[in-house]
Amino acid sequence: MPGESALIYRSKIDLLYPLLALAMFLQGFLMLWVYDPFMPPLHNYAGGLFVGLGILATFSMLTTTYKITGSELIVYFSMIPRRIPLKGIERVADKRGFAVRLGYSRDAVEIKYRTGRTIGSVVISPKDKDTFMWDLTKAMSDLEMPNGGVDAGTGNRHRPRRHRT
Q1: Which of 15, 42, 66, 158 is most buried (most C-beta within 10 Å)?
Q2: Burial (CB count within 10 angstroms: exposed 0-12, middle 13-18, buried 19+), residue 48
Q3: Does an H or E element contain 75, and which?
Q4: Are 71 and 85 in contact (CB under 8 A)?
C-alpha cells in the first residue's frame, strides 16, 4: 500500500555458503580453461554451467532480503518476491542445521502459514533474528482480527508462537 512503512532485513550468510559458491565457480572455470583432448565437447558446457551456477548462487546470497509491511511479510530471494499475509502465519519457530531454504545460515527461522486452502512453509535467516522476531510479532499484534484474534472454528489464536526445535 502506498505510504506504508516497511521494515527491511538482510539475510545472514554463514561462511560455508560463499565457499560452496566459490568452489562451483572455480570448478567450472577449470573445466573451461584446462584443455583435455580426450574429454568430450560436453565438458565445456558443464564448465559453463558450473560458472553460471556459481554466479547465480553469489547473486542470490547478496540480494536475499525480508520485508515486513503492515499486512504481509515479503521474502525476496534473487529478486523474486514471496508474499506471506501476516494474518495467515500460524507458527514461527527457530530452525537449526542444514536444509534447502531461502537463507544462507544454519541458524534460521521457520514460518508456517496458510493462504486460503494452501499451507506453506518458508525457512529464512535474517541477520538480526531477535529484532526480526520482535517486529514480526508486533506487526501481527497490530492487525485487527475478528473475534479478538480467535478462530471461531478451532478456538486457536492467530498469533505467532515461538518454538525451539
Answers
A1: 66
A2: middle
A3: strand 72-77
A4: yes
